Amino acid sequence: MRYGAPLPSGYIQGVSDEPIAYPARVREVAPRRAVDFDADLNEAQRKAATHPDGPLLIVAGAGTGKTRTLVYRVAHLIERGVRPERILLLTFTRRAAQEMLGRAEKLVGSESRAVHGGTFHGTAHRLIRRFGVEAGLPGDFTILDQGDAEDLMQLSRAACGLADKTKRFPKKETLHHVYSRHVNTEFPVGAILREEYPRFIEFEDDFTRVFADYTARKQSRNLVDYDDLLLYWAMLLETEAARAIGDRIGALYDHILVDEFQDTNVLQARILKGMCRVHRNLTVVGDDAQSIYAFRGATIRNILDFPRDFHGAAVVTLEQNYRSTQPILDASNMLISRAEERFTKELYTTRTGGEKPWLVTAQDESQQTRFVVDRILELHEAGTPLREMAVLFRAGYMSADLEIELTARNIPFEKWGGLKFLEAAHVKDVLAFLRVLENPRDEVSWYRLLQLMPGIGETTARRAIEALADRDWNPEAFAEFVPPPRAKDAHRGLVDLLRALRRADLEGDGGVAKDIVRIRTMYDDILRARYDREEPRLADLDRLQAIADGYGSRTDFLAAISLDPPASSTDLGFGSESEDDVLILSTAHSAKGKEWDAVFVIWAVDGWFPMSRALGDDDQIEEERRLMYVALTRARDHLAVTHPFNVYQSRRGADYSLSQLSRFIDRGVVRTFQQVVLESTERLPEAETPSAATPTVDLRALLRSRFSS
DNA sequence: TTTTGAAGTCTCTCC
DNA sequence: GACTTCAAAA
After folding, report:
1. Closest residue (Cα, C1') to C3
2. Mean pLDDT value across residues A562-588
């Protein structure tokens, strides 16, 4: 059973097939110059970049000039006369797309600006807005992010009568995870349960019921989740009823290039096949050793099966690493050599010299932090800009202590990945108002904003929504809804606010930033009453307002923030800040595709990296290992892996426990590092503690003994 | 019956 | 430190 919306058979033809307009990302016009493929590329890179038409698989190890090769391929295509707007460049993150388009522009000039680039989801969104209505999809849908989708799943769960305290029935997050996996991997629900949640197998029928309700609910409320974006794209291409539309979408592009192919899933592979039904000009680049998105359904089979799926595909392998020094490669190669399955080979470099990476044992978290900060300042004084250094970790919250220290010492930093401010409750609250205006059927947002009102809780909110649904979501139905007496004032206030906002819309006095100002006349008070520390939250809303200012319409704004969320605080529209020399803090995932002169990988502790949740499952441990490999291979000249020895365990009472070094740094890997054990700070006066202290005999012995057991 | 405050329970990666 | 669950108050 599948849960996607079937495409209605009727659709209207018409509207020209001119390419979708993409906003130009770079303003200045770069001069056009002849590209020198011979001088700029090595043989393998050149072979890939100048490959003629037809399917091409580039297997590229870390740092082998993958981006460079793709950019030169784009340049080559343009020189060959392919129209730039007929080239589609699919990447995994928005950052990667921007970087690649920027580099292409430097190479071939402003012409390359017409190249279409973006993430799978972003591109899906544009195509669906453009062609979806013709295929019977709603034109005014709003996009659910993961949190919204989970909330909607909760409503479905309740509608199926599974919300009561039956403790054993899975949480909304689990339900959504299974659903998303089903869509992205096409595994049957039962198989997913058997593999990942054996304890829930008995509920398979209930899962199916909830999913059916969830799917129907999304459709009747004009809601589209991330998975739907891909699903609808695939269906536009594949469904017989949409054949003519699929043909036109397929005819939009002559060449398709895909970055990070190892992180695509079967649904994305189907999309690529569909996009290539007129031509077979598909170039994919990937590295199986860097596959780190299995949790999203990515499968390495896409790379392995590529030559079979696209018969006669050329395969080019890039092995020469231009990024890292040999000692860093030695450590990385050793680490990944432990992987259960490997398909690619050892990386090598012609770069000479370079010191062994450091393996730093700190006494505790605060010493780890001090070491990292001291070392960063040292390198900075020696001439490395802050922006050329990064601290990487497994999960967003692990940098908390470091962030405090950096702030205290006035070192500017920028954080990538982890919790984004758009996911913060108070920001989502304000967005809920906007989304209800945009799509009055947005049940998730109604539910959220109603419960903000004093006196209105779960039950009253649900009743109000029922009243709305009964009247086909006519906005007036809410005004006529009779709330319980205690919520009378709040109801009145909300009705007035929504009316005022709609009126402003009609009178052209809108603008999404103005909307937010109006919403905040009500919401700021609610916020103050709800939270003790209101200042940072109010500041977040100021930032939201500033971002909104850059968008003309509410529709654009809402779509943009679901698909291209500002990833860091400096992305948030305070322009000049992003030019500053700032240190990068990033999750290992968000660091993929980037490189720095100096990289610090902190919390290399078993249970942290790899995370404890992965420990039960061999495949997950392998994915964690590849993730560590990704982290290590980000470094050009300096690499330090740190682990605190004593870890404060807030979970089990207030005491310290001894931590184990990450299992990925086994004895053989340790030999590729130089070990540094930081002295306990109590023993030495601070002035005498060098940032890289001499190892003490005791701790070294302790360290060794752990590897011998 | 519904809301709200307080204690208790986890904590990921991303579009 | 944020979200869920439980018990008391309106």
Report:
1. A425
2. 63
Which DSSP state fits A7?
P
| Gap from A424 CA to C2 C1', Å | 10
Angstrom distance (rounded) from CA A298 to CA A558 = 27
Nucleotide with C1' nearest the A123 CA: B15
Closest CA to A50 of A65, A32, A35, A33: A35
Q: How many helices and strands (H and E) does chain A possess?
A: 28, 16
| Pairing status of strand A655-658 against strand A635-649 | antiparallel
What pLDDT is recorded for position A183? 93
CA distances from A11 to A14, A133, A233, A239 (A): 10, 8, 16, 12
Which has more pLDDT, A610 or A698?
A610
Give distance CA A533 / C1' C10 (Å).
Answer: 27
Question: For chain A, what percent of residues have pLDDT higher than 70?
Answer: 85
Closest residue to B12 measured CA to C1′: A395
A632 CA vs B8 C1’ separation (Å):
38
What local confidence, expressed as pLDDT, does residue A419 receive?
Answer: 53
pLDDT-based confidence at residue A626 (cuts at 50, 70, 90): very high
Residues 6 or more apart from A189 whose CB is under 8 A from it? A1, A178, A182, A204, A207, A208, A211
Q: Using the Cα atoms of residue A549, residue A551, residue A553 and residue A555 in order, give the sign of their dihedral.
A: negative
The gap between A455 CA and B14 C1' (Å) is 36
H or E segment to which residue A360 belongs: strand A358-364
Closest CA to A648 of A395, A393, A417, A368: A368
Q: Give the model's confidence band at A651: pLDDT under 50 very low, under 70 low, under 90 confident, else very high.
A: very low
Query: Structure tokens of A126?
Result: 């544009």
Average pLDDT, chain A: 83
**Residue A571 in this model has a pLDDT that exceeds 70:** no
Q: What is the 3-state secondary structure (H, E, C) of A606-626?
A: CEECCEHHHCCCHHHHHHHHH
- Give pTM, 2 decimals: 0.84
Mean pLDDT on A109-137: 89
Nucleic acid strand B: bases within 7 A of protein CB: 1-4, 10-15
